[in-house]
Amino acid sequence: MNDNQLLLKVRDLKTYFFLEEGTVHAIDGADFDIRRGEAVGVVGESGCGKSVTGQSILRIVPNPGEVVEGEITFYRYEKRDDGTEVQEVVDLTALDPRGDEIRSIRGGEISMVFQEPMTSLSPVHTMGQQIMEAIILHQKVDEDEARRRAIEMLRRVGMPQPESTVDSYPHQLSGGMRQRGMIAMALSCSPSLLIADEPTTALDVTTEAQILQLMRDLQQDLGMAIMFITHDLGVIAEMTSRVVVMYMGKVVEGADVDTLFYDPKHPYTRALLNSIPRLGHDKSERLESIKGVVPDPYNLPPGCPFHPRCASFMPGVCNVEEVPNFVIEPGHTARCFLYAD
Ligand SMILES: Nc1ncnc2c1ncn2[C@@H]1O[C@H](COP(=O)(O)OP(=O)(O)OP(=O)(O)O)[C@@H](O)[C@H]1O
Ligand SMILES: [Mg+2]
């Protein structure tokens, strides 16, 4: 496997919700790449579009939302009998969201761990039934084999007594166990990309550390890429090698993790880093210490959406023109007029 091979390419993605009150530009210009086996962090304040980015990739944006523009390309790599690999390019935006092709990708080649496990687990089916369903849908195995694999996967994710928890219903399990169950389900078909949407936000610190360690191990062992969505910059530093920063539906900066922490370019990223909660912070606390308020999503300011809060605001420029993505150096981009040449 070549680490530099692209796995997912997102360009100028726009996903809007058409509500009676108006149109919410949930994603309004997202650009980023994920390479094979790579862990990419997606960070930003509440409401900036992190979850909708994951939903857009899997084509599960709920009504009345829609991917209205842009490119989401998934690269599939298949081994031939002679050992060579062939690359196949799949345009995810072109697929029917209810069609067979996206359903074979969803939960198979790309899977997602959701922010709140209870919303994505069925309360009337056991953990085992739900994992087995995923396995049977994507792999040609019978029920006995699927059950064997479900138990094995539960063991890998550190579920206690997998032979018996496999027959438990989600409500019989603790939050940490449910999260492990959901990760087991997401990983049961060895996806090449795991979208992890705040997988540990609801957990206590010890369980969080265990789950993060587990995801790192599985990333190594299975060679899968992870898109790690979080508002926690500590988790980003620990888990990812590259980061994209989102603000009001736009990717405002993208860089490798060290560059992002030590040489951030976008004023929003700088403000975000300054707002890192101190030790002993309340985990449920959101990042709110940036000056000013997040704009009304129905009524975005013209130009750069961050300009009303920005320390480097240039009147007549930032509040007038759409900001393009500027390349600062290869692998480092910022959507900010400070970097226009
Ligand atoms: N089902 C929906 N219907 C209408 N608007 C939605 C829906 N889902 C998301 N949105 C809107 O889209 C924008 C982006 O939401 P999203 O859930 O992606 O934010 P987020 O970055 O994941 O936030 P958080 O950190 O709180 O999870 C928000 O303005 C939100 O209100
Ligand atoms: Mg979210």
Notable features of this structure?
binds magnesium ion, 30% helix, 12 strands, four-stranded antiparallel sheet, eight-stranded mixed sheet, globular, binds adenosine-5'-triphosphate, single chain, 341 residues, Rossmann fold, alpha/beta
Question: How would you summarize this macromolecular structure in one to three sentences?
Answer:
The chain has a domain at 6-96 and 231-339: P-loop containing nucleotide triphosphate hydrolases (Rossmann fold, 3-Layer(aba) Sandwich).
Low-confidence regions: none
What would you say the CATH architecture of the domain at 6-96 and 231-339 is?
A: 3-Layer(aba) Sandwich
- Overall morphology: globular
Strand-and-helix sequence, N→C?
EEEHEEHEHHHHHEHEHEEHHEE
Count of individual helical segments: 11
- For the record, the CATH class of the domain at 6-96 and 231-339 is Alpha Beta
Radius of gyration: 20 Å
Q: What percentage of the residues does DSSP assign to strands (E)?
A: 25-35%
Describe this structure in words.
It is built from 11 helices and 12 strands. It has 341 residues and is of the alpha/beta class. The protein has a domain at 6-96 and 231-339: P-loop containing nucleotide triphosphate hydrolases (Rossmann fold). The strands form 2 sheets. Strands 6-7-8-3-9-10-12-11 form an 8-stranded mixed sheet, with helices on both faces. Strands 2-1-4-5 form a 4-stranded antiparallel sheet, covered by helices on one side. The radius of gyration is 20 Å and the shape is globular. The two termini are 38 Å apart. The model has no long low-confidence stretch (mean pLDDT 89).
